[in-house]
Design goal:
alpha/beta; 30 strands; binds adenosine monophosphate; six-stranded mixed β-sheet; binds magnesium ion
């Protein structure tokens, strides 16, 4: 069998994934199933409805300070002495609020209370001295100071949260503000993880002298959950074509298939061979990155149908063949699988997140590949530094647990001297 090799630059490979991810969201593509979730359970989920303001926010002109509601024109010259009409606390019934604040008058007011008619500013209590029913005010206030006008944050009926938004704490708070105790969210896409390799054994087994335990299925399951998917773990596939094919066919019944291992150049790296026999379409079979160079991205179309129609896998399921080295698996998930998963989850995929930091010590690499090296970001404010973790290569999970980011080294550099700026990709 002749395998074709399509090794793309990192940028091209990423672009291809983003293009395919966008296709799954085009108007012609299948509608995604939705479900309803209680407000708290909806956090981290992807919104499948539009959330509108059920009333003006704020619903009344709102004081943002404890102090006195005044007419700003009364505050010159200073100090000004005003007559205090009464007090308005937060939650005060609107009918209890003094009818109108006239020239020379003020109302004691609390944060979150409705500002009475006639007043156009609130002076903070710190700048006032109360004497019986009079208050002396030491500072001026501009019109509107310390007041949020009715509807200034949102008008009744306006769109607050749109479909496709991943609900974080602020979005949940806004939904609560408008009385949405339940929200319609997209169902989590099912993502099947298929680990390959004759040397790999289950976490509950005692490995033989030349065997290792499966860790990739677990790191991937965690990343899938974080990205909004529901992981499904298949049994470990041996390096044998028929058994591998059977498991791939099972995996293609979910929304996305992630394979790990078996994509390098070894004689028993069978993933591409088996998928080629299944007439899969390949978008790339490698990217000029390290770790993770042998990463594969493709789609199994209708031609993939199993011989027995009953257990036929679905047409048009995307798959990634992630390299088996544990750190390569983690990095290539973040770089390539995540945007596709996010699109299948109904979100607009988020961009990679970068910051810049100064290299703490010299970074030396061989040029030619864009490198994503496990690193530690430390320091704060204006003095943020990044340092590579010492590691034994892309199999070294122990080193990666000490990292909190990846230092990204461009393809044309072999040395980044200490003190130079480095792009840092946040996990
Ligand atoms: P491969 O990509 O199959 O050539 O595997 C590359 C390296 O990653 C080998 O040293 C494998 O033993 C190791 N590896 C592959 N799959 C896993 C896994 N599921 N968990 C831990 N290590 C793995
Ligand atoms: Mg292998």
């Amino acid at each position: 069998m002749v395998l074709s090799f399509m090794v793309l630059s990192f940028e091209d490979a990423r672009r291809v994934v983003e293009e395919q991810a966008a296709l799954t969201q085009s108007p012609g593509s299948q509608a995604r199933p939705t479900e309803h979730a209680d407000l708290l359970a909806a956090s981290g989920r992807v919104l499948a409805e539009s959330v509108l303001a059920d009333r003006d926010i704020p619903p009344f002109p709102c004081s943002t300070r404890d102090g006195y509601a005044v007419r700003s024109s009364d505050l010159s010259p200073l100090p000004a002495t005003l007559e205090v009409l009464g007090e308005i606390k937060a939650g005060e019934k609107l009918e209890n609020i003094p009818g109108n604040v006239s020239n020379g008058q003020a109302v004691s007011i609390m944060t979150g209370a409705p500002v009475p008619a006639g007043a156009d500013a609130v002076v903070m209590v710190e700048y006032t001295t109360r004497r019986d029913n009079r208050v002396e005010i030491a500072r001026g206030a501009a019109v509107g100071e310390n007041i949020v006008p009715r509807g200034a944050e949102a008008r009744k009926g306006s769109l607050l949260l749109d479909r496709g938004l991943r609900l974080n704490e602020a979005a949940v708070a806004l939904a609560a503000t408008v009385g949405k105790a339940r929200l319609e969210v997209y169902r989590r896409p099912q993502v099947t993880v298929l680990t390959t390799g004759d040397e790999i054994v289950d976490v509950r087994s005692t490995p033989g002298p030349s065997q290792i335990r499966n860790s990739n299925s677990y790191s991937l399951a965690v990343q899938i959950r974080q990205a909004g998917g529901e992981p499904v773990l298949l049994p470990i596939a041996p390096d044998e074509p028929q058994a591998l094919r059977n498991l791939i066919e099972q995996g293609l019944r979910s929304d996305l298939l992630l394979l790990t291992g078996g994509v390098s150049m070894g004689r028993y790296d069978l993933v591409e061979q088996v998928l080629t026999e299944m007439q899969a379409e390949f978008f790339f079979t490698g990217a000029q990155i390290q770790p993770g160079r042998p990463v594969v991205f493709g789609k199994c179309g209708a031609g993939t149908l199993a011989r027995d129609g009953a257990s036929a896998p679905r047409a048009g399921v995307y798959f990634f063949g992630l390299p088996g080295n544990p750190v390569s698996t983690m990095v290539t998930f973040d770089l390539f699988a995540r945007p596709m998963l996010e699109a299948l989850a109904g979100m607009s995929p988020r961009k990679l997140r970068f910051v810049h930091a100064k290299a703490k010590s010299d970074i030396r690499v061989k040029p030619g590949l864009r490198r994503f090296l496990p690193a530690i970001l430390s320091g704060e404010f204006e003095n943020v530094q990044v340092d590579l973790v010492a590691w034994q290569g892309s199999g070294d999970v122990a080193a990666t647990t000490r990292a909190n980011c990846y230092a990204v080294i461009p393809t044309d550099r072999d040395l980044i001297p200490a003190g130079e700026w480095v792009a840092v990709m946040m996990k």
